[in-house]
Amino acid sequence: MTAKPEQKYPLTPAVFEALEVTKRGCDELLLEADWLAKLAKSSATGIPLRIKLGLDPTAPDIHLGHTVVLNKLRQLQDLGHTVIFLIGDFTSMIGDPSGRNATRPPLTAEDIAINAQTYYRQASMVLDPAKTEVRYNSEWCDPLGARGMIQLAAKYTVAQMLERDDFTKRYRSGVPISVHEFLYPLMQGYDSVALKSDLELGGTDQKFNLLVGRELQREYGQEPQCILTMPLLVGLDGVEKMSKSKGNYIGISEPASEMFGKLMSISDALMWDYFTLLSFRPMAEIDLMKQEVAAGRNPRDCKVMLGQEIVARFHSEAAADKALEDFNHRAKGGIPDDVPEVALEGAPMGIANFLKAAGLTTSTSEANRNVDQNGVKIDGVTINDKTYKVEVGTYVVQVGKRRFAKVTLT
To answer: Where in this protein would one find the motif 'HIGH' region, according to its record (predicted)?
Structure first.
């Protein structure tokens, strides 16, 4: 028999308030009754719950989309619970196939160490380090050895693994599935056993792996963890999930003015999702703002509040104020004070190559698109001719609303 939380502790108003904090913006909470019982027990005994987030450091930098889960962890930390920031140094070497139709190349130990250090430093901009337990799953995965791995694999069937949607699709379409890929959800689930996790968080694409942890805890006689999935943040385009590869992201290490300008560019409708998933303001305050906007308040006022809150979190209050000042200045046709200076050679230079060389676009095709859209200005004059050549001189160049440079071409 495995342990199951019993409702023997009082369900106080504070417990229900904690439940609402947990559910804010979430996609799914499983099982809510179990989590309520855990919250009641913690409230009555004063023993913090153990909240787990496992991350494979596949890239060194994170954007606001990644912080959706981190924000939830911070909210739970503020309720007094312990967050376990689990770095999957062992599982990274397997490679998680979640949501993919092909295997993902495993990382080297050196890549993992570098990425993990940067990732945690950036995550600490959201989390409270004093209430964060940093662990590496190689602590218990390496000692398992071949015998332990076989014993663990015996606790899950191939049929259960094929319940996972991406595995099923690959199997039916004849796309190879390596045996080691079945080990990934098992090892992630075993992390929950090793850490005695009460709640594990993840994106909606991680639901299967999170449920494996719940089942394995039962197998090991532990009270099964609850799972909480968070939605994927929609990017600046208002369509696709936020992603660096799609160029619709806001990096948390971006300059304050760039971050603020991007936040001001989101649609009024998308702004409310950003408030729910990224802001630390109470939902009652956000709901009141919605009512005020519906009654005629300018939504720009609310967007400014959101932008300043996010910029202050990753920079400072002073930086947030300066970002707003720069934004207003640019909106009136002005030029920011901190325009980067660039020196180029090769005059005369075609406008597309000029913009790319100055770092104002990532490619000549992007430069040409901006020219076609009347988004390029040199010394305040719009350039709409893709064959335009820039002669020797020093110019203030603007691309779009936020990118500026003082370029000297010789």
So the answer is: 57-66
